[in-house]
Amino acid sequence: MITFDKKVINQTHIHLLITHLPIVGTALGAFVLIHGIWKRNKDTLIAAYNVLIVSAIGAGIAYATGEGAEETIEHLKGISKHLIEDHEESALVSYRFNTYRRGFADWAFCNIEKYVTG
To answer: Is 103 exposed, middle or buried (0-12, 13-18, 19+ CB in 10 A)?
Structure first.
């Protein structure tokens, strides 16, 4: 746990802070990648790769902190176990998608010269 001025940041806080990074990062990375392919610009393609990698790392962190976040909120009044389980299942699907996306980004980065030089 990280403490600042006697306030504790736990896995729930980290999960809430990081959880949208993969969503926004995937969209941004896709737009940058499309732009880089369209303009045939190596620097833009590398930037897209970096955005996708940071996004995939964020997905891993979000997935890793999800269980701790669940433990924190599952006992709160008004929280549905069913919704938590649905959220957990969709997180697993998203995590797998991010793993495949990371593989694609690695492949694209290794073949970047083909896109730039034609």
So the answer is: exposed
